[in-house]
Every structure is written in C-alpha cells, then in structure tokens.
Amino acid sequence: MRLALVLALLAIAGCSSRNPDEQQRSLDRVHQDKSCADAVGFYEPETGVVSSEAIAKEVAYRYLKSAYPTDRHLRPMTASLKNGVWTVSGSMPKNAAGGVAAIELCQSNGRVLVMSHGQ
C-alpha cells in the first residue's frame, strides 16, 4: 500500500512543472477585466489562452519585438497577473538611460489591451 502511494506521488510530482513560469494560473471570470470577456471562438481552455507566465512573456515578446524592433531591453521580462490581465514589461540594466516596453494581455483570449514604451 505504501509503495503504491509513493509511486502515485512520484508520478504526480513528475508531471508537474518545476519552473514556476510554466505553472498554469486559474482564470477568475467573475473578477476579470471587462475588456477580456469576449470569447476566442469555439474552444477556450478553462485556464484561458494565455494560461501561464511563460506564455504571457512569449506572446508579449512577439508583439513588442514587432513594434519596437531596435529595443535591446525587451528581455529579461517580468510578468504579473491581476484580474485576468497579464502585465508584462522588459527590464533596463542598472544605470542605463531610457525606458522599457510594456504590454497588457487578457488571460482569457490573448487580446492586447495596452502596449506602451517608456522614455
């Protein structure tokens, strides 16, 4: 019995991602931003289209790189999730002049709400 329990726990632990950026975040449709309420189409995952920090960073990078192709400070990126909206921004090296690019994405459907660049 103990062996079966240990094997089951190891199997579950092996399936979960060790990288916290790849952990799927639950989608709170009740408190999500009203701009994110539109459905994507016929299929929408329970956790949303942009379900993890890693996906949010990759989608943000693609958008920001196309808008600001000469920006060398897009990566590393930081991402935070609040009310179903991912806020992702680049980072500046210490003592560097300028600003960073930032974007807000809906977790549910991937819609871009805001894209900006600081000075």
Describe the protein:
With 119 residues, the protein is α+β, with helices and mostly antiparallel strands. The chain has one domain. The protein has helices at residues 2-15, 53-67, and strands spanning 78-82, 85-89, 101-106, 112-117. Strands 1-2-3-4 form a 4-stranded antiparallel beta sheet, with helices on one face. It starts with a helix and ends with a strand.
Identify the notable features of this structure and list them briefly.
119 residues; alpha+beta; 4-stranded antiparallel sheet; 4 strands; 24% helix; elongated; disordered N terminus
Short description:
This protein is an alpha+beta fold.
Topology:
Layout: H1 2-15, H2 53-67, E1 78-82, E2 85-89, E3 101-106, E4 112-117
Antiparallel strand pairs: 1-2, 2-3, 3-4
The gross shape turns out to be elongated
Number of discrete helical segments: 2
Detail the poorly predicted runs: 1-17
Give the proportion of residues in helices.
10-25%
How large a portion of the residues is in β-strands, by DSSP E?
15-25%
Beta strand count = 4
Going across the biggest sheet, name each strand in turn.
Answer: 1-2-3-4
Main sheet record: 4 strands, antiparallel
What is the residue-averaged pLDDT? 81
The string of secondary-structure elements, in order, is: HHEEEE
What's the domain count?
A: 1
State the end-to-end CA separation.
62 Å
Query: Rg to the nearest angstrom?
Result: 18 Å
Q: Which structural class matches the secondary elements?
A: alpha+beta
